[in-house]
């Protein structure tokens, strides 16, 4: 009798062990509802960085607790303001009108302005839709441009330089522009500030919809390069602050009625600073060869307004410039495929080859990393969602950032809005291999 009991116990233990090793049961693929949604944009946190974080990172644990797709896509041009507009509106660049981070100032052929004014948005944001249903909205950002761009229909907006008085002191990066080490350290501190401020704002203001931007992987990636030890540390520090906030949200019960959607707005590509021709001076080349045309530079993308200049001669000229990979003509099939033709948008959009950047050569040293192109390194991003309404252990079918706005509306029960694609389709299994070292 005793022997039988021992045998049964051993058998039970073996079964329990086996169950632990077996592939997990298929996850639910149904989206539920939520009272509060936080869209957390980890600026420039490329999918390529996930294996640096590894499968024991907080981000990997959060992915397991929720639904994940680690090779989702941003939209083109792969820039911050473009992709935040896409997240907040659910359409591509040509439709919302933020084609890249910059545009020419009115009447100028070379002076650029940031595309950060709310009136530059051609379509309805999910803030506007949320407000129409009496919901509360907020922006917490390490980049003030995003507070400005989405200031319309935003109840609570804060950044490090435009700070709510109940939030703690925040570093001002402009004070360290010329000091690499100080700039790096202040970026790490600012990312911590964003996470801490976000939690405070969520607790105190109880917004239903919050947009967040964590700037450090972008700024450190530009300055030191996506392959640098500084970038690796910046990403690890983000993971640490994220884990701390996530545990607080879990412990306080906040996660039971809050959905956290974590994405990046674009990736990053190494600039070849050893090559003394890696900087392509688009402004000067345009001015010298086509004096009527205007040009603006934006990392790995450049924009040209022809102003009557013969299009083919401009295309022929820049096709022969070292480092220019592609020229997209307004009205062409390619422009339609990428959906980049907007009302006052450029006539030509140029992409650089990997390693090249639209910048005067002496300035290249300041930009060891850049983005904007259609390359995988610039376009591939993680998409992770967790908390209220999200089944644990689910995968997500291939999608891009246009699916976030409809997702937010479905979770919060917001009607209206006209989106280009539908909510992300959940899958019964998730693939987290990108976290493997
Ligand atoms: Zn950037």
Q: Which small compounds were modeled alongside the protein?
A: zinc ion
Determine the number of helices (DSSP H or I, runs of at least 4 residues): 15
Helix content: 25-40%
Low-confidence sequence ranges: none
Output the strand order for the largest sheet: 6-5-7-1-8-15-2-16-17
Largest sheet: 9 strands, mixed
The number of distinct structural domains comes to 2
N-to-C span: 49 Å
Question: What is the element layout, followed by pairings?
Answer:
Blueprint: H1 2-21, E1 36-42, H2 50-53, H3 58-65, E2 67-73, H4 80-89, H5 93-96, E3 102-104, E4 112-114, H6 126-132, E5 137-141, H7 144-149, E6 156-159, H8 180-205, E7 209-214, H9 216-224, H10 229-251, E8 258-263, E9 269-270, H11 282-289, E10 294-298, E11 301-305, H12 311-319, E12 324-329, H13 333-338, E13 348-352, E14 369-370, H14 376-379, E15 380-387, E16 394-396, H15 404-412, E17 426-427
Parallel strand pairs: 1-7, 1-8, 2-16, 5-6, 5-7
Antiparallel strand pairs: 2-15, 3-4, 8-15, 9-14, 10-11, 11-13, 12-13, 16-17
């Amino acid at each position: 009798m005793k022997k039988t009991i021992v045998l049964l116990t051993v058998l039970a233990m073996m079964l329990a062990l086996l169950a632990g090793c077996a592939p997990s049961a298929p996850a639910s693929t149904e989206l539920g509802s939520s009272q509060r949604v936080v869209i957390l944009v980890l600026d420039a946190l490329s999918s390529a960085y996930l294996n640096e974080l590894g499968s024991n990172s907080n981000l990997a644990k959060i992915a397991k607790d929720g639904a994940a797709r680690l090779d989702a896509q941003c939209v083109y041009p792969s820039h911050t303001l473009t992709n935040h507009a896409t997240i907040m509106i659910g359409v591509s660049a040509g439709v919302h009108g933020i084609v890249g981070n910059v545009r020419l100032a009115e009447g100028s052929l070379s002076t650029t302005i940031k595309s950060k004014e709310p009136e530059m948005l051609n379509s309805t944001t999910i803030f506007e839709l949320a407000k129409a249903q009496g919901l509360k909205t907020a922006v917490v950002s390490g980049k003030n441009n995003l507070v400005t761009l989405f200031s319309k229909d935003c109840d609570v907006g804060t950044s490090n330089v435009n700070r709510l008085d109940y939030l703690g002191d925040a570093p001002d990066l402009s004070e360290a522009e010329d000091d690499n080490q100080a700039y790096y350290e202040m970026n790490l501190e600012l990312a911590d500030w964003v996470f801490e401020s976000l939690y405070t704002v969520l607790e105190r203001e109880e917004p239903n919809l919050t947009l967040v931007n964590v700037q450090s992987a972008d700024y450190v990636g530009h300055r030191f390069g996506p392959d640098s030890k500084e970038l690796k540390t910046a990403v690890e520090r983000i993971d640490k602050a994220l884990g701390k906030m996530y545990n607080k949200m879990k412990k306080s019960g906040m996660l039971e009625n809050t959905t956290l959607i974590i994405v990046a707005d674009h990736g990053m590509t190494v600039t070849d600073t050893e090559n003394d021709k890696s900087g392509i001076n688009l402004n000067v080349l345009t001015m010298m060869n086509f004096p009527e045309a205007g040009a603006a530079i934006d990392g790995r993308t450049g924009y040209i307004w022809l102003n009557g200049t013969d299009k083919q001669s401009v295309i022929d000229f820049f096709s022969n410039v070292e480092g220019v990979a592609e020229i997209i003509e307004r009205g062409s099939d390619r422009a339609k495929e990428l959906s980049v033709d907007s009302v006052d948008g450029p006539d030509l959009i140029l992409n650089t080859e990997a390693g090249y950047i639209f910048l005067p050569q002496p300035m290249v040293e300041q930009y060891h990393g850049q983005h904007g192109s259609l390359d995988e390194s610039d376009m591939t991003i993680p998409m992770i969602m967790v908390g209220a309404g999200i089944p644990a252990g689910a995968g997500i079918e291939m999608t891009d950032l246009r699916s976030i706005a409809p997702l937010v509306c479905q979770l919060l029960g917001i009607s209206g809005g006209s989106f280009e694609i539908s909510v992300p389709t959940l899958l019964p299994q998730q693939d987290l291999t990108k976290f493997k070292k």
